[in-house]
Amino acid sequence: MSDMLAKYGPLMEFPDVASALKRQSDRAVRVALSRRNPPRWARELKKARVRHGRRVFFRTRDVALLIERDMPLADDE
Fold it and tell me: Which domain of life is it from (predicted)?
């Protein structure tokens, strides 16, 4: 989590989230968020969304927790 905070700061934009989630483009993240039945990770990502005027950001801490929860380290097994 501290690595992501150092790299992106407290808020992430769509391209940052896409690269952190290993998606091809930010459009893939946008499409997943707008689906009628979004995948679980997209539902969790919606909770991390913050709007500033027309711009949309995501809390870096919440994105990092989402990644940690969905992809546990090999040592945790």
Answer: Bacteria
Is residue 17 within 8 A of residue 24, CB to CB? The reply is no
What's the whole-model pTM score?
0.83
Amino acid (one-letter) located at 72: P
Q: Percentages helix, strand, coil for the chain, rounded to the nearest 5?
A: 60, 15, 25
Q: What's the half-sphere exposure (Cβ side, CA atoms, 13 Å) at 4?
A: 21
Digits of tens for pLDDT over the chain (77 positions)? 889 999 999 999 999 999 999 888 899 999 999 999 999 999 999 999 999 999 999 999 999 999 988 765 544 44
